[in-house]
Amino acid sequence: MQRLIEKIVEYQNPTVAGLDPKLAYVPSFIKEKCFEKYGKNLEGAAQALFEFNKALIDALCDIVPAVKPQAAYYEMYGWQGVKALAQTIAYAKEKGMYVITDGKRNDIGTTMEAYAAAHLGATDLEGEEVEAFSADALTVNGYLGSDGINPLLKICADRDKSVFVLVKTSNPSSGELQDKKIDDKTVYETMGDMCENWGKDLRGASGYSAVGAVVGATYPEMLGELREKLPHTFFLVPGYGAQGGGANDVKFAFDKNGIGAIVNSSRGIMCAWSKEEGSSEADFAAAARREAIRMRDDIRSVVGKMKA
Amino acid sequence: MQRLIEKIVEYQNPTVAGLDPKLAYVPSFIKEKCFEKYGKNLEGAAQALFEFNKALIDALCDIVPAVKPQAAYYEMYGWQGVKALAQTIAYAKEKGMYVITDGKRNDIGTTMEAYAAAHLGATDLEGEEVEAFSADALTVNGYLGSDGINPLLKICADRDKSVFVLVKTSNPSSGELQDKKIDDKTVYETMGDMCENWGKDLRGASGYSAVGAVVGATYPEMLGELREKLPHTFFLVPGYGAQGGGANDVKFAFDKNGIGAIVNSSRGIMCAWSKEEGSSEADFAAAARREAIRMRDDIRSVVGKMKA
Fold it and tell me: Can B22 be counted among the known catalytic residues?
Protein backbone atom coordinates (compact mmCIF):
# COMPACT_ATOMS: atom_id res chain seq x y z
CA MET A 1 0.00 0.00 0.00
CA GLN A 2 2.99 2.23 0.66
CA ARG A 3 3.73 2.40 -3.10
CA LEU A 4 0.21 3.62 -3.75
CA ILE A 5 0.39 6.20 -0.97
CA GLU A 6 3.68 7.58 -2.30
CA LYS A 7 2.18 7.90 -5.76
CA ILE A 8 -0.85 9.72 -4.32
CA VAL A 9 1.43 12.16 -2.49
CA GLU A 10 3.60 12.67 -5.58
CA TYR A 11 0.55 13.57 -7.69
CA GLN A 12 -1.30 15.21 -4.78
CA ASN A 13 -4.24 13.24 -6.07
CA PRO A 14 -6.06 10.58 -4.00
CA THR A 15 -8.27 9.34 -6.83
CA VAL A 16 -8.46 6.24 -8.98
CA ALA A 17 -10.06 5.95 -12.40
CA GLY A 18 -12.39 2.96 -12.67
CA LEU A 19 -12.12 1.16 -15.99
CA ASP A 20 -15.54 -0.49 -16.28
CA PRO A 21 -15.89 -0.36 -20.04
CA LYS A 22 -19.24 -1.55 -21.32
CA LEU A 23 -19.24 -1.63 -25.09
CA ALA A 24 -21.93 1.07 -25.02
CA TYR A 25 -19.41 3.53 -23.51
CA VAL A 26 -16.83 2.96 -26.27
CA PRO A 27 -16.88 5.62 -29.02
CA SER A 28 -18.20 4.30 -32.31
CA PHE A 29 -15.02 5.02 -34.28
CA ILE A 30 -13.11 2.60 -32.00
CA LYS A 31 -15.83 -0.04 -32.18
CA GLU A 32 -16.02 0.16 -35.96
CA LYS A 33 -12.28 -0.17 -36.34
CA CYS A 34 -12.15 -3.23 -34.06
CA PHE A 35 -15.22 -4.92 -35.54
CA GLU A 36 -13.68 -4.49 -38.96
CA LYS A 37 -10.37 -5.97 -37.86
CA TYR A 38 -11.59 -8.82 -35.61
CA GLY A 39 -15.26 -9.25 -36.55
CA LYS A 40 -18.41 -8.23 -34.71
CA ASN A 41 -17.88 -10.83 -32.03
CA LEU A 42 -16.46 -11.13 -28.52
CA GLU A 43 -12.91 -10.62 -29.75
CA GLY A 44 -13.82 -7.46 -31.66
CA ALA A 45 -15.71 -6.12 -28.66
CA ALA A 46 -12.90 -7.00 -26.24
CA GLN A 47 -10.26 -5.34 -28.36
CA ALA A 48 -12.46 -2.25 -28.60
CA LEU A 49 -12.50 -2.13 -24.78
CA PHE A 50 -8.73 -2.38 -24.73
CA GLU A 51 -8.29 0.42 -27.30
CA PHE A 52 -10.67 2.59 -25.25
CA ASN A 53 -8.74 1.83 -22.05
CA LYS A 54 -5.39 2.55 -23.68
CA ALA A 55 -6.53 6.01 -24.76
CA LEU A 56 -7.89 6.70 -21.25
CA ILE A 57 -4.66 5.51 -19.62
CA ASP A 58 -2.60 7.71 -21.96
CA ALA A 59 -4.78 10.70 -21.07
CA LEU A 60 -4.62 10.10 -17.31
CA CYS A 61 -1.31 8.47 -16.40
CA ASP A 62 0.61 11.64 -15.55
CA ILE A 63 -2.05 13.00 -13.18
CA VAL A 64 -4.02 10.04 -11.78
CA PRO A 65 -2.03 7.56 -9.68
CA ALA A 66 -4.15 4.45 -10.18
CA VAL A 67 -6.69 2.62 -12.29
CA LYS A 68 -9.26 0.09 -11.14
CA PRO A 69 -10.49 -2.27 -13.84
CA GLN A 70 -13.69 -4.04 -12.80
CA ALA A 71 -13.40 -7.73 -13.72
CA ALA A 72 -17.14 -8.18 -14.40
CA TYR A 73 -17.08 -5.92 -17.46
CA TYR A 74 -14.30 -7.97 -19.01
CA GLU A 75 -15.76 -11.38 -18.14
CA MET A 76 -18.95 -10.25 -19.85
CA TYR A 77 -17.00 -10.41 -23.12
CA GLY A 78 -15.80 -13.96 -22.48
CA TRP A 79 -12.20 -15.11 -22.29
CA GLN A 80 -11.53 -12.62 -25.04
CA GLY A 81 -12.64 -9.89 -22.59
CA VAL A 82 -10.46 -11.39 -19.88
CA LYS A 83 -7.55 -11.14 -22.31
CA ALA A 84 -8.37 -7.43 -22.68
CA LEU A 85 -8.25 -7.19 -18.87
CA ALA A 86 -4.75 -8.70 -18.84
CA GLN A 87 -3.68 -6.33 -21.63
CA THR A 88 -5.15 -3.34 -19.76
CA ILE A 89 -3.34 -4.23 -16.54
CA ALA A 90 -0.04 -4.64 -18.37
CA TYR A 91 -0.45 -1.37 -20.25
CA ALA A 92 -1.36 0.65 -17.16
CA LYS A 93 1.62 -0.76 -15.25
CA GLU A 94 3.91 0.06 -18.18
CA LYS A 95 2.63 3.66 -17.92
CA GLY A 96 3.52 3.74 -14.22
CA MET A 97 0.00 3.45 -12.83
CA TYR A 98 -0.92 1.42 -9.74
CA VAL A 99 -3.48 -1.19 -10.78
CA ILE A 100 -6.29 -2.38 -8.51
CA THR A 101 -8.23 -5.29 -10.00
CA ASP A 102 -11.78 -5.04 -8.71
CA GLY A 103 -12.72 -8.70 -8.59
CA LYS A 104 -14.16 -9.10 -5.07
CA ARG A 105 -12.68 -12.60 -5.14
CA ASN A 106 -13.24 -14.94 -2.23
CA ASP A 107 -12.66 -18.58 -1.43
CA ILE A 108 -10.61 -20.71 0.97
CA GLY A 109 -7.31 -22.53 1.27
CA THR A 110 -5.74 -23.74 -1.94
CA THR A 111 -8.51 -22.16 -4.00
CA MET A 112 -7.80 -18.74 -2.52
CA GLU A 113 -4.10 -19.39 -3.15
CA ALA A 114 -5.03 -19.88 -6.81
CA TYR A 115 -6.83 -16.51 -6.91
CA ALA A 116 -3.89 -14.86 -5.14
CA ALA A 117 -1.45 -16.35 -7.65
CA ALA A 118 -3.72 -15.38 -10.56
CA HIS A 119 -4.30 -11.75 -9.66
CA LEU A 120 -1.31 -10.67 -7.57
CA GLY A 121 1.39 -13.33 -7.67
CA ALA A 122 2.66 -15.83 -10.18
CA THR A 123 1.73 -19.31 -11.31
CA ASP A 124 4.09 -22.23 -11.09
CA LEU A 125 4.56 -24.03 -14.41
CA GLU A 126 6.61 -26.95 -13.15
CA GLY A 127 9.35 -24.82 -11.69
CA GLU A 128 8.94 -21.76 -13.90
CA GLU A 129 7.06 -18.79 -12.49
CA VAL A 130 4.71 -17.05 -14.91
CA GLU A 131 2.58 -14.02 -14.09
CA ALA A 132 -1.06 -14.37 -15.12
CA PHE A 133 -2.69 -10.98 -14.37
CA SER A 134 -0.38 -9.56 -11.71
CA ALA A 135 -2.12 -6.37 -10.65
CA ASP A 136 -0.81 -4.35 -7.69
CA ALA A 137 -3.93 -4.86 -5.59
CA LEU A 138 -7.14 -6.90 -5.58
CA THR A 139 -10.52 -6.31 -3.97
CA VAL A 140 -11.73 -9.29 -1.94
CA ASN A 141 -14.75 -10.38 0.08
CA GLY A 142 -14.06 -11.52 3.66
CA TYR A 143 -17.29 -13.42 4.35
CA LEU A 144 -15.33 -16.70 4.64
CA GLY A 145 -13.00 -15.39 7.35
CA SER A 146 -9.22 -15.72 7.73
CA ASP A 147 -8.97 -18.86 5.57
CA GLY A 148 -9.94 -16.66 2.64
CA ILE A 149 -7.50 -13.86 3.47
CA ASN A 150 -4.35 -15.57 4.74
CA PRO A 151 -3.25 -16.84 1.30
CA LEU A 152 -3.25 -13.21 0.14
CA LEU A 153 -1.18 -11.90 3.04
CA LYS A 154 1.87 -13.95 2.11
CA ILE A 155 1.83 -12.61 -1.44
CA CYS A 156 1.30 -9.05 -0.14
CA ALA A 157 4.40 -9.44 2.03
CA ASP A 158 6.59 -11.17 -0.56
CA ARG A 159 5.67 -9.06 -3.57
CA ASP A 160 4.65 -5.69 -2.13
CA LYS A 161 1.00 -6.07 -3.12
CA SER A 162 -2.25 -5.05 -1.40
CA VAL A 163 -5.83 -6.15 -0.94
CA PHE A 164 -9.01 -4.22 -0.22
CA VAL A 165 -11.62 -6.13 1.78
CA LEU A 166 -15.30 -5.20 1.40
CA VAL A 167 -16.36 -3.59 4.66
CA LYS A 168 -19.24 -1.21 3.95
CA THR A 169 -20.36 -1.10 0.33
CA SER A 170 -21.94 1.90 -1.39
CA ASN A 171 -25.22 0.30 -2.49
CA PRO A 172 -28.66 0.95 -0.96
CA SER A 173 -29.16 -2.64 0.27
CA SER A 174 -25.69 -2.93 1.81
CA GLY A 175 -27.28 -2.60 5.23
CA GLU A 176 -29.36 -5.78 4.92
CA LEU A 177 -26.42 -7.68 6.36
CA GLN A 178 -23.62 -5.15 6.91
CA ASP A 179 -25.53 -2.88 9.32
CA LYS A 180 -26.91 -5.70 11.46
CA LYS A 181 -25.59 -5.77 15.02
CA ILE A 182 -23.34 -8.49 16.40
CA ASP A 183 -23.27 -7.77 20.15
CA ASP A 184 -22.46 -4.06 20.27
CA LYS A 185 -20.89 -3.88 16.81
CA THR A 186 -22.30 -3.93 13.30
CA VAL A 187 -21.24 -6.59 10.80
CA TYR A 188 -19.25 -3.95 8.89
CA GLU A 189 -17.43 -2.85 12.05
CA THR A 190 -16.64 -6.48 12.79
CA MET A 191 -15.22 -6.85 9.27
CA GLY A 192 -13.25 -3.61 9.78
CA ASP A 193 -11.69 -5.02 12.95
CA MET A 194 -10.76 -8.15 11.02
CA CYS A 195 -8.96 -5.95 8.45
CA GLU A 196 -6.90 -4.23 11.19
CA ASN A 197 -5.97 -7.64 12.51
CA TRP A 198 -5.10 -9.18 9.12
CA GLY A 199 -2.85 -6.20 8.34
CA LYS A 200 -1.04 -5.94 11.66
CA ASP A 201 2.28 -7.37 10.41
CA LEU A 202 2.09 -5.64 7.04
CA ARG A 203 2.29 -1.95 7.93
CA GLY A 204 4.35 0.42 5.82
CA ALA A 205 6.17 3.65 6.72
CA SER A 206 2.91 5.62 6.58
CA GLY A 207 1.35 3.36 9.21
CA TYR A 208 -1.16 1.91 6.77
CA SER A 209 -1.06 -1.82 6.15
CA ALA A 210 -1.32 -3.87 2.96
CA VAL A 211 -4.88 -4.78 3.97
CA GLY A 212 -7.24 -1.99 2.98
CA ALA A 213 -11.01 -1.74 3.11
CA VAL A 214 -13.74 -0.82 0.66
CA VAL A 215 -16.00 1.77 2.29
CA GLY A 216 -18.65 3.49 0.17
CA ALA A 217 -18.90 7.27 -0.20
CA THR A 218 -22.66 7.05 0.06
CA TYR A 219 -22.41 6.65 3.84
CA PRO A 220 -20.25 9.67 4.88
CA GLU A 221 -20.89 9.32 8.61
CA MET A 222 -19.63 5.75 8.54
CA LEU A 223 -16.50 6.83 6.66
CA GLY A 224 -15.49 9.16 9.48
CA GLU A 225 -16.36 6.68 12.17
CA LEU A 226 -14.33 3.94 10.46
CA ARG A 227 -11.40 6.29 9.75
CA GLU A 228 -11.09 6.75 13.50
CA LYS A 229 -11.56 3.12 14.45
CA LEU A 230 -9.26 1.67 11.78
CA PRO A 231 -6.11 3.79 11.89
CA HIS A 232 -3.97 1.31 9.90
CA THR A 233 -6.54 0.45 7.23
CA PHE A 234 -6.39 2.36 3.97
CA PHE A 235 -9.77 2.93 2.30
CA LEU A 236 -10.89 2.45 -1.28
CA VAL A 237 -13.96 4.63 -1.60
CA PRO A 238 -16.44 3.97 -4.41
CA GLY A 239 -19.61 5.99 -4.90
CA TYR A 240 -18.18 9.38 -5.89
CA GLY A 241 -19.90 10.95 -8.89
CA ALA A 242 -22.32 8.62 -10.64
CA GLN A 243 -23.37 6.98 -7.36
CA GLY A 244 -24.10 10.36 -5.77
CA GLY A 245 -21.18 11.17 -3.43
CA GLY A 246 -19.21 14.46 -3.63
CA ALA A 247 -16.04 15.81 -2.01
CA ASN A 248 -17.86 16.64 1.21
CA ASP A 249 -19.06 13.07 1.45
CA VAL A 250 -15.58 11.61 1.16
CA LYS A 251 -13.57 14.06 3.28
CA PHE A 252 -14.00 12.07 6.46
CA ALA A 253 -12.16 9.14 4.89
CA PHE A 254 -8.87 11.06 5.16
CA ASP A 255 -6.57 11.47 8.15
CA LYS A 256 -4.90 14.67 9.41
CA ASN A 257 -2.08 14.22 6.85
CA GLY A 258 -4.58 14.15 4.00
CA ILE A 259 -3.99 10.48 3.32
CA GLY A 260 -5.83 7.29 4.24
CA ALA A 261 -8.09 6.88 1.24
CA ILE A 262 -8.36 6.74 -2.53
CA VAL A 263 -11.64 7.74 -4.16
CA ASN A 264 -12.91 6.00 -7.29
CA SER A 265 -14.83 7.40 -10.22
CA SER A 266 -15.67 5.15 -13.16
CA ARG A 267 -18.49 6.36 -15.43
CA GLY A 268 -17.85 9.96 -14.37
CA ILE A 269 -14.44 9.80 -16.04
CA MET A 270 -15.05 7.24 -18.82
CA CYS A 271 -18.18 8.99 -20.05
CA ALA A 272 -17.18 12.58 -19.21
CA TRP A 273 -17.59 13.74 -22.83
CA SER A 274 -21.32 12.93 -22.72
CA LYS A 275 -21.86 15.44 -19.90
CA GLU A 276 -19.77 18.26 -21.36
CA GLU A 277 -21.52 20.99 -23.33
CA GLY A 278 -20.21 20.90 -26.91
CA SER A 279 -18.12 17.73 -26.48
CA SER A 280 -18.43 14.80 -28.86
CA GLU A 281 -17.29 11.22 -28.43
CA ALA A 282 -14.16 12.02 -30.44
CA ASP A 283 -13.09 14.10 -27.40
CA PHE A 284 -13.57 11.28 -24.90
CA ALA A 285 -9.95 11.07 -23.74
CA ALA A 286 -9.47 14.83 -23.32
CA ALA A 287 -12.85 15.08 -21.57
CA ALA A 288 -11.85 12.23 -19.24
CA ARG A 289 -8.68 14.14 -18.36
CA ARG A 290 -10.64 17.34 -17.68
CA GLU A 291 -13.04 15.45 -15.41
CA ALA A 292 -10.14 13.73 -13.61
CA ILE A 293 -8.58 17.14 -12.95
CA ARG A 294 -11.91 18.56 -11.77
CA MET A 295 -12.38 15.61 -9.43
CA ARG A 296 -8.80 15.87 -8.14
CA ASP A 297 -9.22 19.57 -7.42
CA ASP A 298 -12.64 19.00 -5.85
CA ILE A 299 -11.17 16.47 -3.42
CA ARG A 300 -7.98 18.49 -2.85
CA SER A 301 -10.17 21.41 -1.80
CA VAL A 302 -11.51 19.48 1.19
CA VAL A 303 -8.45 17.37 2.01
CA GLY A 304 -5.60 19.90 1.70
CA LYS A 305 -1.95 19.00 1.20
CA MET A 306 -1.15 15.27 1.34
CA LYS A 307 1.95 14.16 3.27
CA ALA A 308 3.19 10.54 3.41
CA MET B 1 -32.83 -25.81 -10.14
CA GLN B 2 -35.63 -28.10 -11.28
CA ARG B 3 -33.49 -29.27 -14.23
CA LEU B 4 -30.71 -30.24 -11.83
CA ILE B 5 -33.10 -32.05 -9.49
CA GLU B 6 -34.58 -34.06 -12.35
CA LYS B 7 -31.12 -35.08 -13.48
CA ILE B 8 -30.23 -36.14 -9.92
CA VAL B 9 -33.38 -38.27 -9.73
CA GLU B 10 -32.74 -39.78 -13.17
CA TYR B 11 -29.21 -40.84 -12.15
CA GLN B 12 -30.18 -41.49 -8.50
CA ASN B 13 -27.00 -39.58 -7.75
CA PRO B 14 -26.93 -36.33 -5.77
CA THR B 15 -23.25 -35.59 -6.39
CA VAL B 16 -21.25 -33.13 -8.44
CA ALA B 17 -17.67 -33.53 -9.61
CA GLY B 18 -15.55 -30.48 -8.89
CA LEU B 19 -13.16 -29.63 -11.72
CA ASP B 20 -10.40 -27.74 -9.90
CA PRO B 21 -7.50 -28.76 -12.08
CA LYS B 22 -4.14 -27.59 -10.84
CA LEU B 23 -1.44 -28.47 -13.34
CA ALA B 24 0.07 -30.75 -10.69
CA TYR B 25 -3.01 -33.00 -10.86
CA VAL B 26 -2.78 -33.45 -14.64
CA PRO B 27 -1.06 -36.69 -15.73
CA SER B 28 2.33 -36.10 -17.28
CA PHE B 29 1.45 -37.64 -20.66
CA ILE B 30 -1.24 -34.97 -21.13
CA LYS B 31 1.05 -32.15 -20.01
CA GLU B 32 3.85 -33.30 -22.29
CA LYS B 33 1.54 -33.47 -25.29
CA CYS B 34 0.17 -29.98 -24.66
CA PHE B 35 3.54 -28.40 -23.88
CA GLU B 36 4.85 -29.85 -27.11
CA LYS B 37 1.93 -28.52 -29.12
CA TYR B 38 1.50 -25.07 -27.49
CA GLY B 39 4.75 -24.47 -25.61
CA LYS B 40 5.51 -24.68 -21.90
CA ASN B 41 3.53 -21.54 -21.19
CA LEU B 42 0.08 -20.51 -19.95
CA GLU B 43 -1.55 -21.70 -23.16
CA GLY B 44 0.09 -25.12 -22.96
CA ALA B 45 -0.88 -25.44 -19.30
CA ALA B 46 -4.45 -24.30 -19.95
CA GLN B 47 -4.96 -26.72 -22.80
CA ALA B 48 -3.60 -29.51 -20.59
CA LEU B 49 -6.29 -28.64 -18.04
CA PHE B 50 -8.92 -28.81 -20.76
CA GLU B 51 -7.71 -32.19 -22.04
CA PHE B 52 -7.75 -33.49 -18.44
CA ASN B 53 -11.27 -32.16 -17.92
CA LYS B 54 -12.51 -33.64 -21.19
CA ALA B 55 -11.34 -37.11 -20.20
CA LEU B 56 -12.96 -36.75 -16.76
CA ILE B 57 -16.23 -35.53 -18.28
CA ASP B 58 -16.23 -38.46 -20.74
CA ALA B 59 -15.68 -40.87 -17.84
CA LEU B 60 -18.39 -39.36 -15.64
CA CYS B 61 -21.15 -37.93 -17.81
CA ASP B 62 -23.45 -40.97 -17.83
CA ILE B 63 -23.43 -41.39 -14.03
CA VAL B 64 -22.74 -37.98 -12.47
CA PRO B 65 -25.36 -35.28 -13.14
CA ALA B 66 -23.19 -32.19 -12.76
CA VAL B 67 -19.72 -30.67 -12.78
CA LYS B 68 -18.49 -27.67 -10.84
CA PRO B 69 -15.46 -25.95 -12.34
CA GLN B 70 -13.78 -23.64 -9.81
CA ALA B 71 -12.93 -20.36 -11.57
CA ALA B 72 -9.81 -19.69 -9.48
CA TYR B 73 -7.90 -22.65 -10.96
CA TYR B 74 -8.52 -21.38 -14.46
CA GLU B 75 -7.74 -17.72 -13.72
CA MET B 76 -4.43 -18.89 -12.29
CA TYR B 77 -3.45 -19.78 -15.87
CA GLY B 78 -4.36 -16.33 -17.20
CA TRP B 79 -6.87 -15.56 -19.93
CA GLN B 80 -5.65 -18.75 -21.55
CA GLY B 81 -6.91 -20.61 -18.48
CA VAL B 82 -10.20 -18.73 -18.64
CA LYS B 83 -10.52 -19.91 -22.24
CA ALA B 84 -10.09 -23.47 -20.94
CA LEU B 85 -12.91 -22.75 -18.47
CA ALA B 86 -15.18 -21.67 -21.32
CA GLN B 87 -14.21 -24.77 -23.30
CA THR B 88 -14.83 -27.01 -20.28
CA ILE B 89 -18.29 -25.53 -19.68
CA ALA B 90 -19.24 -25.97 -23.33
CA TYR B 91 -17.95 -29.55 -23.44
CA ALA B 92 -19.75 -30.60 -20.24
CA LYS B 93 -23.02 -29.09 -21.48
CA GLU B 94 -22.62 -30.87 -24.81
CA LYS B 95 -22.30 -34.12 -22.83
CA GLY B 96 -25.55 -33.34 -21.02
CA MET B 97 -24.08 -32.35 -17.67
CA TYR B 98 -25.42 -29.52 -15.51
CA VAL B 99 -22.62 -26.98 -15.04
CA ILE B 100 -22.16 -24.97 -11.86
CA THR B 101 -19.43 -22.34 -12.19
CA ASP B 102 -17.92 -21.87 -8.76
CA GLY B 103 -16.96 -18.20 -8.95
CA LYS B 104 -18.42 -16.78 -5.72
CA ARG B 105 -19.02 -13.60 -7.68
CA ASN B 106 -20.45 -10.54 -5.98
CA ASP B 107 -21.02 -6.89 -6.80
CA ILE B 108 -23.90 -4.46 -7.22
CA GLY B 109 -26.22 -3.01 -9.82
CA THR B 110 -24.89 -2.81 -13.37
CA THR B 111 -21.67 -4.57 -12.34
CA MET B 112 -23.59 -7.55 -11.02
CA GLU B 113 -25.64 -7.49 -14.22
CA ALA B 114 -22.35 -7.84 -16.08
CA TYR B 115 -21.37 -10.91 -14.01
CA ALA B 116 -24.86 -12.37 -14.51
CA ALA B 117 -24.60 -11.85 -18.29
CA ALA B 118 -21.07 -13.27 -18.33
CA HIS B 119 -21.69 -16.47 -16.41
CA LEU B 120 -25.39 -17.30 -16.88
CA GLY B 121 -26.89 -15.06 -19.53
CA ALA B 122 -25.72 -13.43 -22.72
CA THR B 123 -23.89 -10.26 -23.70
CA ASP B 124 -25.38 -7.64 -25.96
CA LEU B 125 -23.14 -6.81 -28.92
CA GLU B 126 -25.12 -3.90 -30.30
CA GLY B 127 -28.30 -5.87 -30.75
CA GLU B 128 -26.78 -9.35 -31.14
CA GLU B 129 -26.81 -11.64 -28.12
CA VAL B 130 -23.65 -13.67 -27.61
CA GLU B 131 -23.08 -16.16 -24.79
CA ALA B 132 -19.79 -15.69 -22.94
CA PHE B 133 -19.54 -18.59 -20.44
CA SER B 134 -23.20 -19.52 -19.98
CA ALA B 135 -23.10 -22.14 -17.23
CA ASP B 136 -26.34 -23.46 -15.72
CA ALA B 137 -25.60 -22.10 -12.25
CA LEU B 138 -23.17 -19.78 -10.48
CA THR B 139 -22.03 -19.58 -6.86
CA VAL B 140 -22.31 -16.06 -5.43
CA ASN B 141 -21.54 -14.18 -2.22
CA GLY B 142 -24.44 -12.23 -0.67
CA TYR B 143 -22.47 -9.89 1.60
CA LEU B 144 -23.67 -6.87 -0.45
CA GLY B 145 -27.37 -7.70 0.02
CA SER B 146 -30.22 -7.72 -2.51
CA ASP B 147 -28.52 -5.26 -4.90
CA GLY B 148 -26.01 -8.01 -5.57
CA ILE B 149 -28.59 -10.77 -6.04
CA ASN B 150 -31.50 -9.16 -7.89
CA PRO B 151 -29.68 -8.92 -11.25
CA LEU B 152 -29.24 -12.71 -11.10
CA LEU B 153 -32.89 -13.46 -10.33
CA LYS B 154 -34.11 -12.06 -13.63
CA ILE B 155 -31.71 -14.25 -15.58
CA CYS B 156 -32.64 -17.28 -13.45
CA ALA B 157 -36.31 -16.68 -14.34
CA ASP B 158 -35.80 -15.90 -18.04
CA ARG B 159 -33.25 -18.60 -18.82
CA ASP B 160 -33.95 -21.36 -16.30
CA LYS B 161 -30.65 -20.86 -14.45
CA SER B 162 -29.74 -21.05 -10.74
CA VAL B 163 -27.45 -19.48 -8.17
CA PHE B 164 -25.96 -20.82 -4.95
CA VAL B 165 -25.38 -18.19 -2.27
CA LEU B 166 -22.65 -18.77 0.34
CA VAL B 167 -24.41 -19.39 3.63
CA LYS B 168 -22.15 -21.54 5.80
CA THR B 169 -18.82 -22.42 4.25
CA SER B 170 -16.82 -25.57 5.01
CA ASN B 171 -13.58 -23.96 6.21
CA PRO B 172 -12.36 -23.81 9.83
CA SER B 173 -12.48 -19.99 10.06
CA SER B 174 -15.96 -19.70 8.54
CA GLY B 175 -17.32 -18.98 12.00
CA GLU B 176 -15.32 -15.77 12.47
CA LEU B 177 -18.17 -13.90 10.84
CA GLN B 178 -20.78 -16.51 9.87
CA ASP B 179 -21.41 -17.89 13.38
CA LYS B 180 -21.69 -14.48 15.06
CA LYS B 181 -25.12 -13.68 16.44
CA ILE B 182 -27.38 -10.96 15.04
CA ASP B 183 -30.14 -10.70 17.64
CA ASP B 184 -31.20 -14.33 18.07
CA LYS B 185 -29.86 -15.54 14.72
CA THR B 186 -26.37 -16.23 13.42
CA VAL B 187 -25.04 -14.41 10.37
CA TYR B 188 -25.35 -17.64 8.36
CA GLU B 189 -28.99 -18.11 9.42
CA THR B 190 -29.67 -14.51 8.43
CA MET B 191 -28.12 -15.22 5.02
CA GLY B 192 -30.20 -18.39 4.77
CA ASP B 193 -33.39 -16.42 5.38
CA MET B 194 -32.32 -14.00 2.66
CA CYS B 195 -31.99 -16.96 0.26
CA GLU B 196 -35.53 -18.14 1.03
CA ASN B 197 -36.76 -14.63 0.38
CA TRP B 198 -34.78 -14.10 -2.86
CA GLY B 199 -36.12 -17.39 -4.22
CA LYS B 200 -39.76 -17.01 -3.26
CA ASP B 201 -41.03 -16.31 -6.81
CA LEU B 202 -38.71 -18.81 -8.45
CA ARG B 203 -39.88 -22.15 -7.08
CA GLY B 204 -40.07 -25.20 -9.33
CA ALA B 205 -42.31 -28.28 -9.21
CA SER B 206 -40.15 -29.83 -6.48
CA GLY B 207 -40.69 -26.82 -4.21
CA TYR B 208 -37.05 -25.79 -4.40
CA SER B 209 -36.28 -22.37 -5.83
CA ALA B 210 -33.61 -21.18 -8.26
CA VAL B 211 -31.76 -19.64 -5.28
CA GLY B 212 -29.72 -22.33 -3.55
CA ALA B 213 -27.22 -22.12 -0.72
CA VAL B 214 -23.68 -23.33 -0.15
CA VAL B 215 -23.53 -25.18 3.18
CA GLY B 216 -20.38 -27.08 4.12
CA ALA B 217 -20.36 -30.77 4.99
CA THR B 218 -17.89 -30.09 7.79
CA TYR B 219 -20.71 -28.76 9.97
CA PRO B 220 -23.27 -31.62 9.89
CA GLU B 221 -25.45 -30.30 12.71
CA MET B 222 -25.88 -27.01 10.86
CA LEU B 223 -26.85 -28.87 7.69
CA GLY B 224 -29.82 -30.50 9.41
CA GLU B 225 -30.85 -27.34 11.15
CA LEU B 226 -30.75 -25.36 7.90
CA ARG B 227 -32.55 -28.13 5.93
CA GLU B 228 -35.48 -27.68 8.29
CA LYS B 229 -35.44 -23.88 8.34
CA LEU B 230 -34.96 -23.40 4.59
CA PRO B 231 -37.47 -25.76 2.95
CA HIS B 232 -37.27 -24.12 -0.50
CA THR B 233 -33.50 -23.68 -0.65
CA PHE B 234 -31.48 -26.38 -2.40
CA PHE B 235 -28.00 -26.97 -0.95
CA LEU B 236 -24.64 -27.29 -2.62
CA VAL B 237 -22.49 -29.13 -0.09
CA PRO B 238 -18.70 -28.93 -0.33
CA GLY B 239 -16.35 -30.64 2.10
CA TYR B 240 -17.03 -34.31 1.29
CA GLY B 241 -13.86 -36.37 0.95
CA ALA B 242 -10.69 -34.30 0.93
CA GLN B 243 -12.11 -31.79 3.42
CA GLY B 244 -13.11 -34.54 5.83
CA GLY B 245 -16.89 -35.07 5.51
CA GLY B 246 -18.47 -38.48 4.79
CA ALA B 247 -21.96 -39.76 3.95
CA ASN B 248 -23.10 -39.54 7.56
CA ASP B 249 -22.05 -35.91 7.67
CA VAL B 250 -24.11 -34.96 4.63
CA LYS B 251 -27.26 -37.02 5.21
CA PHE B 252 -29.02 -34.25 7.11
CA ALA B 253 -28.87 -32.01 4.02
CA PHE B 254 -31.56 -34.17 2.34
CA ASP B 255 -35.32 -34.04 2.76
CA LYS B 256 -37.73 -36.98 3.20
CA ASN B 257 -37.81 -37.50 -0.60
CA GLY B 258 -34.04 -37.87 -0.69
CA ILE B 259 -33.56 -34.59 -2.49
CA GLY B 260 -32.59 -31.09 -1.36
CA ALA B 261 -28.84 -31.20 -1.84
CA ILE B 262 -25.96 -32.00 -4.16
CA VAL B 263 -22.63 -33.01 -2.64
CA ASN B 264 -19.33 -31.99 -4.23
CA SER B 265 -16.06 -33.87 -4.43
CA SER B 266 -13.14 -32.35 -6.33
CA ARG B 267 -9.71 -33.77 -5.51
CA GLY B 268 -11.28 -37.04 -4.35
CA ILE B 269 -12.46 -37.69 -7.92
CA MET B 270 -9.77 -35.87 -9.94
CA CYS B 271 -6.91 -37.52 -8.08
CA ALA B 272 -8.59 -40.86 -7.34
CA TRP B 273 -5.88 -42.85 -9.12
CA SER B 274 -3.27 -41.65 -6.60
CA LYS B 275 -5.18 -43.29 -3.74
CA GLU B 276 -5.91 -46.58 -5.46
CA GLU B 277 -3.61 -49.52 -4.82
CA GLY B 278 -1.95 -50.46 -8.11
CA SER B 279 -3.35 -47.53 -10.11
CA SER B 280 -1.11 -45.28 -12.20
CA GLU B 281 -1.81 -41.85 -13.63
CA ALA B 282 -2.65 -43.48 -16.97
CA ASP B 283 -5.78 -44.82 -15.23
CA PHE B 284 -6.93 -41.43 -13.94
CA ALA B 285 -10.23 -41.35 -15.82
CA ALA B 286 -11.27 -44.91 -14.94
CA ALA B 287 -10.20 -44.33 -11.33
CA ALA B 288 -12.25 -41.10 -11.23
CA ARG B 289 -15.27 -43.08 -12.43
CA ARG B 290 -14.75 -45.77 -9.79
CA GLU B 291 -14.48 -43.11 -7.06
CA ALA B 292 -17.59 -41.32 -8.39
CA ILE B 293 -19.53 -44.59 -8.21
CA ARG B 294 -18.21 -45.32 -4.71
CA MET B 295 -19.23 -41.83 -3.58
CA ARG B 296 -22.66 -42.14 -5.22
CA ASP B 297 -23.28 -45.48 -3.51
CA ASP B 298 -21.96 -44.15 -0.19
CA ILE B 299 -24.42 -41.27 -0.28
CA ARG B 300 -27.27 -43.40 -1.67
CA SER B 301 -26.82 -45.71 1.32
CA VAL B 302 -27.79 -42.96 3.75
CA VAL B 303 -30.28 -41.06 1.57
CA GLY B 304 -32.33 -43.85 -0.02
CA LYS B 305 -34.42 -43.52 -3.17
CA MET B 306 -34.66 -39.99 -4.59
CA LYS B 307 -38.05 -38.74 -5.84
CA ALA B 308 -38.61 -35.35 -7.51
Answer: no
